[in-house]
Design a protein that fits this description.
The protein has 800 residues and is of the alpha/beta class.
Length: 800
């Protein structure tokens, strides 16, 4: 059939969107299915090839679910606040509001040009007042529950972006956005107390279907540690210096202590410290380092002994020196550690550098060469009451001893820190808090607190938001006492809007609440959420935290928002490297659409390799997919008048229905497409095929290449579009191969194969074996001594 893909694809896109084919219906009698993708940041460049791959999985699943009779919610929106738009706006002197609106329009048209089956009636934009009003509302709920607080602390600060960064946004000591090296800066920072939900977030992982690596990354990020807090005494004042340790069993091996440069005892007992000036110099140097720089295992060990303060081991009574070192952080544990150099590599190197005693307390290793760290099991030595015990028994006994003597107790700790939740930039959600000299921090419940439209939105000096320069915005009255007060001028981080967007999709136009509870009950939880691995320890943990909190508040009906999560692999450049403009190896998806068509791009992007693994782009590969689709286009020319499946194809058709369906559910899209290619090859070999043969291929291919399938469907006389056509069923009995391959050996060596009906007789297998041409060659002129036939497997001929 003649096929102008540009005309056909535009035709069906217009039909689908004008007829609301993808509209999700609240409270429909059909079973619901909620498929979710990570909503995009609408950059000026528009969609890149990674967007197509990211959305294609849920696109295929959503189209399949509609064909299976589900009421599908497959929404789209835009995570539009944040630094990229603001930086672009500053560079080009265009207001971020204008940039955002323009980018969203471009992005929307691009999404439709690929035929993606989103419900565009539910589009949300995190920068619109009707959306961020409820982001602010959630923040205030957190604030009123004392889960949002302000604290003066050292923070990660990007001097280029002029913004405070959470640890999650500055991994490796560099800004995630611009790549600049991050410095430490003291600031008054808003935090969300996500640490209060550490255990709930861990427990929730038992209730969801996430890949093992996703669960493990979240477990590692939360970082639960079970151990003990132990109170060491300071000799000079008999005050406690408390440490947290996961290995209380090694307390007999403690030969020194280390505190963070920010630890409070330095100032508290400064009058006792005789080398205070040197310690203050060390503190200043530590402030210039990021947490990443301070905690690297392989960095040079630095530190300074505190002269005038001495620790006492509460178990042995021995005096031990106290050091200040920057590899200890105040944010984890107590900001002080007990050092056991015999069994910790970092402590060992520190002890060697500063000539401190090293006492082994677990049998094994050679501490004259290195620390013995293989200590999950073993026998205790040099440990008085623990000698001879296993590590496990020693832990239990020492904790019992600590508690009975009131010098310590069992403790659970978490590596995850509270979430730094403010940015000193313009383009973000205003924080609805007022600072009153009399009342302190007070909530501004008159929502939305609108982001003022200003001409000068460049970052302020010394890390201040440009909102701080707008007197009419800053100066206000306290809603409690009515006196003069100041409005908070920082804005929320980009992660704020994405921490609850999946809820708003359920009820996007509600002006009275973030979402109607009955609608939330109908749609939640999200049945399948697909996205990038880079978001599983930030966005996913943040959004799970918010959802858990809202569940505790009675505002949502489920604790865990996502029932299932899958992840995508990168599409690499033609050179096998990560796509980058600087490398010149990017692929523009819209150029592919213009040259080959949307269906070709859609199929190839899922055929390129295993979905969750990286795969390089191949121009030859996309041409091969185009040839496959062109072959399918010709099948209408070989239709006969018969009904049902062709007998010669029936077995393969039932197998393909089963296997393609299973492959889609297991994100094995490449093998699903491969099996459709096999089926199409079988059709090509037939003189003619039935309409039922063709329809089953169209239905299986429709989620991948819907424009073409719709066109063929219409051409062969069907009146209904394929969006809701029934997904084909298969008969399990007919998926079993009727023919099998039989190997033929001559004197134990494979000489050929042949196909035969399953469960054929031994006589028929033997007859067919002697007809194989290569077998004839190897038995020619020889005497047949024996023929061994194993039914359904092999024929072995012995000839001499």
């Amino acid at each position: 059939m003649e096929y102008d893909f540009k005309k056909v694809e535009k035709k069906w896109q217009d039909y689908w969107y004008s007829h609301d084919c993808f509209k999700a219906i609240d409270f429909d009698s059909k079973p619901k299915y909620y498929a979710l993708i990570e909503f995009p940041y609408p950059s000026g460049a528009g969609m890149h090839i990674g967007h197509i791959k990211a959305y294609s999985s849920m696109e295929v699943v959503s189209r399949k679910r509609r064909m299976q009779g589900y009421n599908v919610l497959f929404p789209i929106g835009f995570d539009a606040y944040g630094l990229p738009t603001e930086n672009y706006a500053i560079k080009n002197n265009i207001h971020p509001r204008i940039v955002t609106d323009r980018n969203i329009l471009t992005f929307t048209n691009q999404l439709k040009s690929v035929g993606l089956s989103f419900d565009f009636d539910r589009v949300i934009d995190t920068t619109k007042e009707d959306y961020y009003k409820w982001t602010q509302y959630i923040f205030l709920r957190l604030f009123k529950k004392k889960l949002a607080y302000k604290s003066f602390t050292y923070v990660n600060y990007c001097p280029t972006c002029k913004v405070v960064l959470a640890n999650e946004d500055s991994q490796g000591g560099h800004c995630d956005r611009c790549g600049s090296e991050v410095i430490q800066k003291q600031k008054d920072v808003w935090f969300l107390k996500i640490t209060d939900y550490s255990q709930k977030l861990l427990d929730g992982l038992d209730e969801v279907d996430y890949p093992a690596r996703v669960k493990q990354e979240q477990i590692n990020w939360i970082g639960k540690s079970v151990g003990a807090e132990i109170n060491f005494k300071i000799k000079q004042n008999n005050e406690n210096l408390t440490v947290f340790t996961t290995r209380p069993d090694t307390v007999y091996g403690v030969t020194f202590m280390v505190i963070a440069p920010e630890h409070e005892i330095i100032e508290k007992y400064s009058s006792c410290i005789t080398n205070l000036d040197a310690i203050k110099e060390y503190q200043i140097a530590a402030q210039k380092k990021t947490e990443f720089q301070r905690t690297q295992i392989n960095k040079d060990k630095t530190g300074i002994k505190i002269e005038g303060l001495t620790g006492i081991n509460p178990i042995t009574g021995k005096e031990i020196p106290i050091y200040v070192a920057d590899y200890v952080m105040t944010g984890y544990g107590t900001g002080a550690i007990m050092a056991v150099p015999a069994h910790d590599t970092r402590d060992y190197e520190f002890a060697k550098k500063f000539n401190i005693d090293i006492i082994p307390v677990i049998e094994g290793g050679d501490i004259s060469k290195e620390a013995f760290t293989d200590i999950e099991t073993g026998t205790m030595i040099n440990s008085d009451i623990l000698n001879g015990l296993s590590v496990k028994d020693a832990k239990d006994k020492i904790i019992e001893y600590l508690e009975s003597n009131s010098i310590g107790h069992k403790m659970v700790n978490y590596k995850m820190k509270d979430w730094a939740f403010n940015r000193q930039r313009y383009w973000g959600e205003p924080i609805p808090i007022i600072n009153c000299p009399n009342c302190g921090y007070v909530s501004d419940d008159n929502l939305p607190l609108k982001l003022p439209y200003i001409e000068n939105f460049k970052p302020g000096n010394d890390g201040e938001s440009p909102l701080a320069d707008i007197k009419e915005y800053v100066n206000c009255k306290c809603p409690k006492c009515g006196k003069d007060a100041k409005r908070e001028t920082d804005t929320m981080p980009q992660w704020a809007g994405s921490s609850w967007y999946f809820l708003r999709y359920c009820d996007p136009r509600n002006d009275n609440e973030l979402a109607n509870m009955e609608k939330l009950k109908y749609w939640l939880p999200v049945d399948w959420y697909n996205g990038g691995m880079e978001h599983v320890t930030r966005h996913m943990i943040y959004s799970r935290f918010w959802n858990n909190f809202l569940f505790d508040e009675g505002l949502v009906p489920v604790k865990e928002p996502y029932k299932k999560r899958t992840c995508i692999g990168l599409i690499l450049g033609r050179d096998g490297q990560k796509m980058s403009k600087s490398l010149g190896n990017t692929v523009d998806p819209l150029e592919i659409v213009n040259e080959y068509g949307a269906d070709t791009l859609r199929v190839y992007i899922l055929f390129i390799g295993e979905y969750d693994q990286p795969a390089p782009w191949s121009d030859e590969g996309i041409k091969g997919v185009k040839r496959f689709l062109e072959r399918v286009l010709r099948f209408d020319e070989k239709l006969n008048d018969k009904e049902g499946y062709s007998p010669s194809l029936e077995n393969l058709i039932h197998k393909t229905i089963k296997e393609v369906g299973n492959d889609i559910e297991n994100i094995k899209f490449n093998t699903a497409i491969s099996k459709l290619m096999v089926l199409s090859n079988a059709y090509s070999k037939e003189e003619s095929i039935t309409k039922d043969d063709l329809m089953v291929l169209l239905k299986l291919l429709n989620p991948f290449a819907p424009h073409m399938c719709e066109e063929i469907n219409e051409k062969i006389g069907n009146k209904e579009c394929m969006v809701f056509s029934k997904w084909p069923d298969y008969d399990e009995a007919k998926t079993i191969d009727n023919e099998i391959d039989i190997a033929v050996q001559v004197n134990g060596k494979l000489r050929g194969t042949f196909k035969i009906a399953k469960d054929s007789s031994k006589e028929e297998m033997e007859r067919r074996a002697f007809e194989v041409e290569n077998v004839k060659v190897h038995i020619n002129g020889k005497e047949i001594k024996k023929v061994i036939v194993v039914p359904n497997k092999i024929v072995n001929i012995v000839a001499i």
